[in-house]
Design goal:
Nucleotidyltransferase, domain 5; seven-stranded mixed sheet; four-stranded mixed sheet
Length: 379
């Protein structure tokens, strides 16, 4: 079984990270105020909800199809890309965007200025046979060499060395984000899913909230979060606060927040697996309607039929078959607000996914984790 780089995150009873805190010798990490964290965590489950909403409701396909937004990644990137796997495995880049347009400016704590960032990103590797998946979180603060890219409108952007990972999306949108991930990993991203603040919050509310257990108090005014230790059913606003918080747990870094997000994904996946017991056609349709409005996909998933076929292939992957790690990184000695890829360890991660194998434990040992430990888990 692959090791998780976030020991105990989302796994009740597993050991947490309680060792001494180690800091880079660069600048002290400054509080970032109300940073807008994109919420990808619901995108992984949104496709599964579409299956439920679509079953027995074929006459509603036109409505649901009209909800979906898609982008033609393949046309923008052209032929200069890694090849597709021949073994039936797939890689999906899942991004959380904090677009400042519409209702998201208020949720993100920023102005309604139409800008967007991808503050959260995961590569979901669906293994051959589609019975298990490995998930690799990519810290937004990672310094990378962004390749030259072209967005879906045909605009060209030059390469940029040593920039933050999330600058790729801010520069050229989905296509440049995919190009950067493929350059970083050497892996082809077969699909793309994106979700925003408003979509995430509404989706959690439509699900009736998600149950999580916190092992210690979590308070973060910036994320409007105040949770006592214990079991809670989080509504959309609280869930948004939980996966946004930087300062409520761990060392206040993006790495600690990733641990919370991974734990929440497990809890969310466990709950979504129980949706099948619902019998209300209206409830199922409301979930499907919310899910299709919440996500943006690549053109290959840009119809309800395509999204349903994709989701059907994931139905055997429950929370126990999601193995999560974080890209092996270390704090930048020159700037404690940034992290650097540990190249040798990262290569072990990418080689494992390329060969459809579990990520080896050695790849995630001795890397920066954010020290959030097992603060949050499923009840």
């Amino acid at each position: 079984m692959p090791a998780d780089s976030t020991p105990g995150a989302g796994i009740p009873g597993a050991p947490g990270s309680r060792g001494p805190r180690h800091r880079a010798r660069g600048r002290r990490r400054k509080p970032r105020g109300r940073r807008r964290t994109g919420l990808l965590v619901a995108a992984w489950t949104a496709a599964g909800i579409v299956v439920l909403g679509g079953s027995g409701a074929g006459y509603l396909y036109f409505t649901l199809n009209g909800n979906l937004q898609s982008v033609d990644i393949d046309q923008a990137l052209g032929a200069d890309r890694p090849g597709k796997a021949a073994d039936g495995s797939e890689n999906i880049l899942v991004l959380g965007s904090d677009t400042r347009s519409g209702g998201n400016g208020k949720l993100g704590g920023g102005a309604d200025d139409g800008t967007a960032r991808s503050d959260t990103a995961m590569i979901v590797h669906v293994h051959q046979g589609h019975r298990r998946a490995s998930v690799v979180s990519l810290p937004r603060d990672t310094l990378v060499d962004r390749p030259a890219c072209t967005d879906t409108a045909g605009r060209h952007y030059p390469a940029a060395p040593g920039v933050m990972f999330n600058s790729a999306y801010a520069t050229g949108g989905a296509a440049c984000a995919v190009k950067t991930v493929e350059s970083l990993t050497g892996l082809r991203m077969d699909h793309y899913l994106e979700i925003d603040f408003a979509g995430f919050q509404k989706l959690v509310d439509e699900l009736g909230g998600v149950r999580v257990t916190t092992t210690e108090d979590i308070r973060d005014p910036d994320s409007h979060l105040d949770l006592k230790a214990g079991t809670h059913r989080l509504g959309g606003a609280q869930a948004l606060g939980l996966v946004r918080t930087r300062h409520g747990v761990g060392d206040g870094s993006d790495l600690g927040r990733i641990q919370l997000q991974q734990a929440f994904v497990r809890a969310l996946a466990a709950q979504v697996s129980d949706i099948g017991v619902l019998t209300s056609p209206k409830k199922l349709y409301d979930l499907a309607d919310t899910a299709t409005r919440a996500v943006t996909t690549d053109s290959g998933l840009g119809s309800v039929n395509s999204l349903m076929a994709f989701a059907s292939g994931l139905k055997n992957i429950d929370a126990s078959k999601l193995h999560m790690v974080t890209l092996p990184v270390r704090y930048d000695p020159a700037d404690g607000n940034r992290v650097l890829v540990q190249e040798d360890k990262a290569r072990q991660v990418w080689d494992a996914l390329r060969n459809d194998r579990p990520v080896p434990r050695a790849a995630t040992e001795g890397t920066a984790t954010g020290e959030a430990g097992d603060v949050v888990g499923a009840p």
